[in-house]
Amino acid sequence: MRFSAALLLWFVLTPWAQASSSLLHCTATDGARLLPTGALLHQPDAQNQATALWSDFIVDLTTGDVHWKLGPESTYQVIQRGDGAYDAILIPPLGNISLATAITDFIRIRKWWGPQVVFIAYDLSDVATGTCSAVEP
Q: Measured between alpha carbons, how far is 76 from 64 in angstroms, rounded to an integer?
């Protein structure tokens, strides 16, 4: 009994648990594609594939489940959990991809400045950035 009470107390007092909900609703606000010239191409949202994919999704930072508005649900692998503010890195499951793909396809969700939680998502040569807000289960 002491162990479970101590475990519960540890979880309640850890900064990650205090960071609020593990469910986040995220919306892309910007995106770009890397061109063969090395330049970044910004396009209107309707034409920007990076922004379109990440335009509206819900992520569970505990399980790695990602629910896209425009696509099927996926379960990502959570390879990093933060230290007080949201700071999570998620990659596609390694069973389906190589390690080389894992470093070009990932989502990072972090609370860098002030109260706003932000994300950056890389999908090979596309990048999307945006904001997230807590979702109560």
A: 5
Q: What one-character-per-residue DSSP string does the chain give?
A: -HHHHHHHHHHHHSHHHHT--SEEEEEEEEEEEE-TTSPEEP--TTT-HHHHHTSSEEEETTT-EEEETTS--EE-EEEE--SSS-EEEEE--TTTS-HHHHTTEEEEEE--STT-EEEEEEETTEEEEEEEEE---
Q: Which residue has tokens 């519960």? A: 8
The strand pair at 40-41 and 87-91 is best described as unpaired
In order of 13, 15, 45, the CA distances from 2 in angstroms are: 16, 22, 54
Could you report the per-residue pLDDT of 1-32, keeping only the tens digit for each? Answer: 333 333 222 333 333 334 456 899 999 888 88
State the Cα–Cα distance between residues 120 and 28, nearest whole angstrom: 9
pTM of the predicted model, to two decimals? 0.73
CB 26 within 8 A of CB 119: yes
Q: Are 117 and 111 in contact (CB under 8 A)?
A: yes
